[in-house]
Amino acid sequence: MTAALWLSIAACGAIVSTTAVSTAFWAFMVFVPLVNIIAIPSLIGSVLLLVHSLPFAAYLLLAQTDAPKHKGSLFLPFSPSRHLGVLVAVSSYLRAVVTLAPKFALIAFGTAWKLWRAPLRGDVYQLPELAKGGWWWERYASFGIQYQDPRQPGGAYKLDIFRAQPSDWHSTPALSPDSTSPPSSPRSNTSFVTLPDVDPGSRADLNEFPQHIWSEVPMGSPMEEESSDLRPVVVFLYDVGMMGPIRPRRWMFGLTGLLFAQQGYVGVVPDITTYPTGQMEDMVADVRAALAWVNKEIRNYGGDPSRIYLCGHGLGAHLGMYTITQDVVVHSRDQVELHNAAVGWAGMGCTKGPVTSAGRDIPNGVRALRVYGQEIELPPVKGVILLSPVADVIKQVRHEAKCWLEHVSPLRRSLGSSQTRCMRHSLGHILFAAKDIVDADLLPHSALILHGKRNQLVPEWQGTWLAELLRGFDFHVTLRTYARLGHFDVVTNLMAGFESRSTAFLLEEIRSFIECSD
Q: Domain of life of the organism in this record (predicted)?
């Protein structure tokens, strides 16, 4: 009787409990539609707010200086397609910063630790007096050297010098295991091989190609046969047109100068004024001042002032080549104007000498061209090394406009807000306009152009078109395109610690170029 009673009570309790749970469940389900009505729009609104806030933030940080006059006091994007383009660019930029910043810090620290522990080896290159008895890093580099008086607050006026290291320190990064391995005895097989990182259309004759990049033998000094202790000088100009709130500075490219020093060159990395602190006039004046300082003082650091090579990346490559071209074009124009004046006077009978040749026409754009920082004498440059160069500024601005980046990019505003100023500051335009009057003997006679086929910021055709244009001035131009490299890959592969399987080929091209130029 007692057991039956307890069973009845348990059954009643179970029924009541089940009923309570069921009631609570259905009471909750009544509020689910209400929660969905509130939560789903909130989620959508949050996503839309994030999507709009990133492009707005990019415009607030980068696009307010020299904004289009019809946009008013606050310049913001409202086009959905522009939002999408800027959002993709901002996402790529943030991903690159998050990925590269920790790696860069670790490599810089590891490289400094390695150099600090390295024993002093001055048997090949004698250290100058200013590097003896100082801090340990003065064996390898001198930082923060003033190369000009400050012209304006925030301007660039310092540079870093990396001394050429002994030849037994030189090293060429080995190819990775997953790369296309060359045959162990290439000369016994076919005489041609396709380089794994170079564009497949480029082939090298192995009977002439240096064999040390296929082996573990360290890359030797580029001029070991020279008896002089003075080394070639490579002046590196970073991309002054880099987008983003983090402006490029010389300390960011110290590893590039160090890699050049490890190959037996004296590496120089100057600070260059960037937009909005300055514009094209200030940048060209900085390059002239840096080159003039190098020509005057580099002997004190083991460099040969008669073998100065100018290396630049992106808009820095354009800036370096433009600085040389501007000086040459203006000098050639002045010579032609004097010649035209002499021809005119002879035609009017004001001189007794015969008229030997007719005057040449000078385009209007060339007539208006002037040299920036002309009080600084520009020294001769032996050759130029152009990494992913910009050649045609107008087409580059149009390319950025297709990607919806023309307002956040400093390219158009640093070279000039108007199309006329952009054309005047475009390397390709002034070279093409002055092709009939330029004295080609004043230009460097050799150029090396290295470009990546995966470059989305500066298309490959910029380097190809510049190579064809320079060949018209009797330039010896070497053009190499790399299938796996993008815009920044070309320069990061030339940083100590960032070496990859492409670094060996990039260094071999640079070494061969400098050897042939010397």
A: Eukaryota
